[in-house]
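Entry 14. Structure prediction run on the chain below.
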Amino acid sequence: MMVKKKMILRDQSGVALVIALIMIIVLTLIGLASTFTSTFEIKLSGNKRGSTDAFYAADSGLQVTMGRIENFNLSQFNPITNRYNPFTDQSNINPTNAVVTIVHDTTQNGPPRSLGSSALNFDFEHFLIQSIGQDQTELSLNLFRSSTTLEEKVVRLIPSFN
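Output returned:
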């Protein structure tokens, strides 16, 4: 009986098969891990691209709005809410598809804070521009588009004739 056990232990005819199966399992796990990692990286880069597109859309909405002095004409603002959407005007083009709102801030008066310089014989109008940009990708219903909100304060100097 003891001789038969020693003979079985010395017989190594199935070891190569066992090692080959273990190697296949290890290689399969490495392949699955790399697939999951690459899928995650693709989603991550897509999200980053979407948020970057949304940021630049909001930023361009700010730039287009500030580039036109007529947007700060107080006669265009709603007298109750002190708000104005510059893209409701047909002469304003909106190539960015950003949603922009200008708020006339009546709670602030006087010159803005600075490094000791002053503007004499000027009146000051304070405005807050809010621009909301979204990325331009078309997604399925269960995914969200990236959105960015930027705000910038603008002070308009108006010469006073006192």
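Residues 126 and 155 are 5 Å apart (CA to CA).
Filed with the rest of this week's runs.
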